[in-house]
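dumping these here so i dont lose them again. two proteins, back to back, each one seq then structure tokens. dont judge the mess
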Amino acid sequence: MKFSALVRVVLLGTILVCAGGYLWFDHVASDVVGPADRDYARTSVQQEVLRAIRQAETIADPLERCLAYPNPVGYRWPREEIAAFCADEFTPALGWSEFKDAIEDGKAAKIDRRLDALLEGYFAGKVPEGAWMAAYSNNFSGTNALNLELVEQWINQSPGSAHALVARGMQEYAVAAAARGEKTIDETDPDALDRMSQANERARELLDKALTIDPRITPAYRVLIWIAKYESDEDLASRAMEAANRVDPANFYVRAAMMDTFEPRWGGSFEQMDQLAEDSGRFLARNPRIDNLRAMALAHRGLYLHFDKDYRGEMQEYEKGLTFGPVGFYFDLASGAATQLDDHLRAVEFTSQMLRFGPFNTDALGHRARELKKLGEDEWAMSDLERLLQIRPNDRDALGAYANSLIKAGKHAAAEARLKQLIAADPDDRWARLQLAWLYGFRLNRLDEANAMIGDMLAEAPEDGELWLQRIRLLESRPGPEMRTAVESFLKFADESSPEQMKAIPVARAWLASHPVH
């Protein structure tokens, strides 16, 4: 579930007749990430889960932190498997600045030597498989002007470099993937499919040429299998898989790419997925990651239940698969299913696994903050939002959620700053403007500024019942002709689909009846 899917609702006041008078109820700042369940009853196991996650996240070293995370309750992943995946994620390989600086300094040979060393280290068992793969995927998958130019310079500086050819092939594949998009074949423009196939053909030529020079560059086989998936070329996929197995029999990541091609949505079957996992099992002693293929095959069943919105059945399939190992894609879907089932603790566990292997995953941080609020873990939720905003300082939903949390914590000046930041980024952000007006009027005692903001919004939308109701609330302390105008306008423009406004209508009529014009 994406963090941008959060619903930001502002309840702009309710009016009641109370004790013979009128009480225009104070606007309550919305809880962006859901109502906190303060009475959430935790078992000792659940309390320990949350404590262990928080404890792990205090560890500064990324690799040690990854190893220290608790597994989800009920999962008994082999330590060797988790150690392998943690090493994949947090072992330094080739950094982007290292690559960029070397190419711009005319020292492409330095990058070739670096990748040669990583290749030799991988086959000697000194470099984790995922780190070797990441040296390519983290640096050569971009297609912006700078990325393309740097790889072009690399090829010019090192015309015989197999590594440079693979990098360029990966960029062509990225162009193909962008052309293909995420729609079904029937919904995709034929011209886009032509662009995809042309880019895939260029990628194949580059990758084949690179593998002729050095067949041990296994990231190239993975890309060839992805190309085969897009082109429905079973022969290409099979040949790439066989070639990868010849040079690296116990590989995991190339097999994982092959698992993708066997998914039913790409023309494969569950039986093919299961068979690949079973056939690969004989290499488990050499590569503990192999068991994750079984996790992928089993968890994939849940995807189709996800499309049908059968969240309970979906969750059951994910649980069956993920017991064999961590798969980020399915943890993402499983956390969403857990949310739908109101299993907030399980959602926290699953989003925490995403953060275990990807601490900068802003979607996971946002989702976990939402679930933590529902568990009453306000301080931890705010900490996650702060982490998110350090990565994406202008994220609108995160800023809104954080501003709400600050309001609830009584940190009104800090909330004002965040709301102003939202408005500076988007002057038409209605939610932020309303929240800031509410903050001025009901927490910071700056009624003139609050009225001015609502006035500006009414000038833009004079038929907005919600705004007139907020105007009434602000005028409560200074009744006069403006109050009558506000009440009459509210009655004229009240939104019948709004329960809050419908509750206010009889009170507004009663107010007019008791305040006749003289």
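---- next one ----
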Amino acid sequence: MLGNLQHFIINYQWLRICLDVTYLVLPVILTVTVLVNFKGNAIIAFCTIAFTLVYAIFFSAFTYISIEGYISWILVPLILSARTTKGFYYYLHAIRILFVLFFVSAAIAKIRSGVIFNTEQMAAILLKQHNIYLVSNPDDWFTKSINFIVEHRAIGYIFFVCGTIAELLFATCFFTRRFDGYLIWVFCIFLAGDLFLMRINYFTWMVFMGCFYYSSFSLQEERQ
């Protein structure tokens, strides 16, 4: 059934355009409804969540882009569905914890599988990730950079360990909000490194950092 739906979408350009436009417009509509304090914003929020989920499933099926890149757009509208300040902070902290679970679990998986102790792991990951590009563009500066890291595996291993440590640092969020401001910078550096080394664009996850920024505010302060 999914294959038939895929072919149906591919065959009709107008449908693809409508899906793309809807994906871009729904968050804008949701934002406007929140700003004008529209009472039906919760309905629009859940429609945005449902549509984005379906859109992400199909888009990831058509391309090599993982559905992980859409998680932020699927979860964050839940915050905007809140009708009270209390509900806003409840959803905000819930999504903050969900993000921490996603991020920390990646580090735990590396430790549990033992790959964190393999000094050649990063070199292998880079070669697998960029194999076609490395062969097609042997004289490119990026190819030379990757080859340098692969040849000097200690450097690659340092990057790998630093990335894992960055993920583990977010475990502090289970116990305190004191370091959330610093963790925002840690995440920015992590994303920049991931984009440069892996050519993976997860900047849509930056929206999660709003949860970390506003976590420093309390409900009592907001009421005052």
